[in-house]
Target: UPF0391 membrane protein I596_398
Amino acid sequence: MVADRAIAPYGPEDAMLKLALFFAVVALIAGALGFTGIAGASAGIAKIIFFIFLVLVALAILGIVLGINLFT
Model:
């Protein structure tokens, strides 16, 4: 339980958004330095993680509306 809170102290959505932002920054830096292959791969990973984040947020909102805790 404690290890789970250390990884994502505010919930799984927060960790996913941080990962998406990390890969977006990596893509920007790699693109600026001319590493287009790494930039493209990082941007693709950031997109995938961001869409997973959106799905988790939608599930959390649905759970709040229905009064169900979906993440336990």
